[in-house]
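User: For a teaching handout, I'd like to show students what a predicted protein-ligand complex looks like in token form. I'll give you the sequence and the SMILES for adenosine-5'-triphosphate. Please answer with just the structure.
Assistant: Understood, here is the input followed by the structure.
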Amino acid sequence: MFKKIMAAFDGSQHSEIAVDTACQLAKALNAELHVFNAPHIIEDTVIVGYSTVPIQPTKERVEAECDEIRKKVKAITGKYEGLEPEFHFAAGNPGNMIVGEAKEAEIDLIVLGRRGLGQFTGLLVGSTTTRVSQLAECAVLTVK
Ligand SMILES: Nc1ncnc2c1ncn2[C@@H]1O[C@H](COP(=O)(O)OP(=O)(O)OP(=O)(O)O)[C@@H](O)[C@H]1O
Ligand SMILES: [Mg+2]
């Protein structure tokens, strides 16, 4: 059965359920638990005269936010004895990054929420989940 399970966590309630479900499956199947987050980096720009100067967030600032993600995830995984998640962070389009990272880490099941932090409440399934379902080379489980 599944030996390496990866939950995709974006901080939303849906993704909390995805992590919890991945924990239960990992415990039941004695599988490795991986958790992935794609930080969404938006560059700011300062305009000086005719020049535009991009301002990148500092590495320290991004790392501090990743620590917050680790804390939130561990609040869930901590309920399951002996389960220590391996974290993956990679900035970019979340769907593409999840699929790429899962392939690299030889994940055999990806668990996602049906929706995430997006605001378009009319959509039943978010764009990340749709993309991962279409492109992943392994099994995909969507939770509600
Ligand atoms: N940046 C991310 N990093 C890790 N997982 C993510 C990320 N964004 C989304 N996911 C995963 O995908 C699930 C569904 O989120 P998705 O982005 O598809 O929906 P949405 O945010 O409601 O809609 P959209 O982003 O299309 O406006 C989340 O519950 C989470 O499991
Ligand atoms: Mg989203």
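For the handout, you might add this sentence: Residues 116-118, 126, 128 surround magnesium ion (ligand 2) (CB under 6 Å).
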